[in-house]
Design brief:
Order of helices and strands: HEEHEHEEHEH
Radius of gyration: 19 Å
Distance between the termini: 41 Å
Strand content: 5-15%
Helix content: 40-55%
Number of strands: 6
Largest sheet: 4 strands, parallel
Oligomer: single chain
């Protein structure tokens, strides 16, 4: 017989796992939408073990239109740690030139923006960061130094 406490323990495992999987699939979904590829929202493949707890055998998104080009295919398939995120780089970074930092953002699935707004997810601030840093602080946008930016690109943050 299953005890209610066991069901609670199962939920404490399943809910975070399903949340992580959902966020991962939303990265692919937002990358597809950014490339104007028609896709379905993420579908979870249900799995109900005994005793019945919410579970999944995985998740998928369904393509409804073709990929416009090979770059879109790569961006959607390899949506990285910045999938769907908007990042602004300001100031001088010692380990990146501006173009290289913006390319790293795009390679990680993010959008490199030129100005800070409420929709900005992160601001990467180097030496001599000016008005963009002040605007990010005013709006409460998270500000990263270069080391935190590298960790974010590696999926560690």
């Amino acid at each position: 017989m299953v005890r209610p406490a066991d069901l609670l323990l199962g939920l404490m495992f399943n809910v975070p796992l399903l949340s992580i999987l959902g966020v991962h699939e939303m990265g692919h979904y937002t990358a597809a939408r950014r490339h104007r590829v028609r896709v379905s929202p993420p579908y979870f493949i249900p799995f109900l073990p005994i005793p019945p707890l919410p579970g999944t055998m995985g998740a998928l998104i369904r393509l409804k239109s073709p990929f416009p080009d090979r770059n879109a295919l790569m961006d959607i398939g390899a949506a990285g740690p910045l999938a769907g995120k908007t990042v602004v780089v300001t100031g001088t970074l010692s380990g990146f030139e501006r173009a290289a930092a913006e390319e790293a953002i795009r390679a990680a699935g993010g959008h490199a923006a030129g100005s800070v707004s409420r929709k900005t997810d992160y601001v990467v601030a180097g030496e001599n960061a000016g008005s963009k840093l002040a605007r990010a602080t005013d709006l409460g946008v998270p500000v990263l130094d270069e080391d935190a930016f590298r960790r974010l690109l590696e999926g560690q943050e």
